[in-house]
Amino acid sequence: MRAPRHWYAPPGLASALLSPLGGVYARATARRLAQGPRAKLGVPVICVGNLTAGGTGKTPVVMALAERLADRQPHILSRGYGGTLAGPVRVDPGRHSAAETGDEPLLLSAFAPVWVSKDRHAGGRAAVDAGAGLLILDDGFQNGQLAYDLQIVVVDAGRGFGNGQVIPAGPLREPISTGLARADLVISIGPDGAQAQFSARHSLPVPILTARLEPLPTGLPLRGAKVLAFAGIGDPEKFFATLRGIGADLHRTIALGDHQALSPALMSRIERDAKALNALIATTEKDAVRLPASFRQKVVTVPVRLKLDDPDLLDAALARLS
Q1: How far is CA 50 from CA 153, 240, 315, in A?
Q2: Which residue blocks in the chain are alpha helix, DSSP H?
Q3: 88, exposed or middle or buried, with CB in 10 Å at 0-12, 13-18, 19+?
Q4: Is there a contact between 298 and 264 (Cβ–Cβ < 8 Å)?
Q5: How far apart are CA 232 and CA 218, in angstroms?
């Protein structure tokens, strides 16, 4: 899904006409969150979520948490968006495909055991029964099944909360004040300029940790290289900006839909275009797990990792988990 233009534009006619539907959506979210007491699983549960639809950087945050908490036997719980498995099932990268589990669980399985489950309670129970000492929930801020010990809201500093309205009038899954009332921390991801703009637009009632996504070295040097880049993530332009930031000579960019299937036919067209440009093909780590096997050696994967400006703030919050 591509974000409608009016989501990140000043309030206008489209958002005004859709505002009543946004109210319906917000009430439905509130009812879902109010359905009975939340289940406790006997281990700490961290929820990493957002207030907006689309990509904000939750996956790198989950990766960072799994690495920081490695000595506590963390397991990751995902609903497996885009996959066919209902679960609960533990992701096995040697057996499962992205079509079955979704791309994010397959990627995250390199950092900690991952469980896919449409039912968060059943998935969490399966993880605990398998020895999880701590659960990290990838998305689920608007899910009311489990009790959370730490709730982290991730926001893209450049996009912020858009026009401040609820789907379909804007990008929000619930009103800002309602969501932040449940949050313990906000992690704002973006470069310094975007962080300054976000701070100027919003005064939030919870602690804010600023961070950025930094690319890791790739198998092939991209500085100065001709590159055709494609991305099927929430905001492909962020990936293209990352490539420009490391000095790649972008000759063509292809923005795909979030989680879009990478069929052999699509990849063959991309390969032909790259050959015509005499360019390397580059994509994101999340897209790479969806590549057909025959193309995995033909595409440069550019992984990114979370870089916190003040990691002590996050570590102090994690140290309070018991």
Answers
A1: 5, 23, 20
A2: 13-33, 58-68, 98-101, 103-108, 120-129, 176-180, 192-201, 236-245, 264-277, 285-288, 311-319
A3: buried
A4: no
A5: 19
Amino acid in the structure at residue 80: G
**What token pair was written down for 177?**
């004040």
How does pLDDT run across 66-99, given as a tens digit for each residue? 999 999 999 999 998 888 999 899 999 999 998 8
pLDDT in tens, 232-289: 988 899 999 999 999 999 999 999 988 888 999 999 999 999 999 999 999 999 999 9
Name residue, tokens 């206008």.
12
Burial 14-45 (b: 16+ CB within 10 A, else e): bbeebeeebeebbeebeeebeeeeeeebebbb
Cα dihedral across residues 118, 124, 125, 127: positive or negative? positive
Q: How far is CA 122 from CA 36, 125, 140, 142, in A?
A: 16, 5, 14, 17
Which tokens go with 197? 């703009």
Question: Residues in the chain, how many?
Answer: 322
Is the Cα torsion angle 271, 272, 274, 280 positive or negative in sign? positive
Is the N-terminal amide bond of 88 cis, ω within 30° of 0?
Answer: yes
- Residue 179 tokens read as 């969501």
DSSP state for residue 140 in the 8-state scheme? -
CA-closest candidate to residue 184, choices 157, 209, 160: 209
Sign of the Cα pseudo-torsion (47, 70, 192, 5, in order): negative
The single residue listed with the structure tokens 């976000």 is 198
Give the tokens for residue 94: 């040697």
* CA distance linking residue 64 with residue 298, whole number of Å: 28
- Comparing CA positions, the residue from 176, 237, 254, 196 lying closest to residue 3 is 237
Asked if 153 and 52 touch (Cβ cutoff 8 Å), the reply is no
120 within 8 A of 144, measured Cβ to Cβ: no
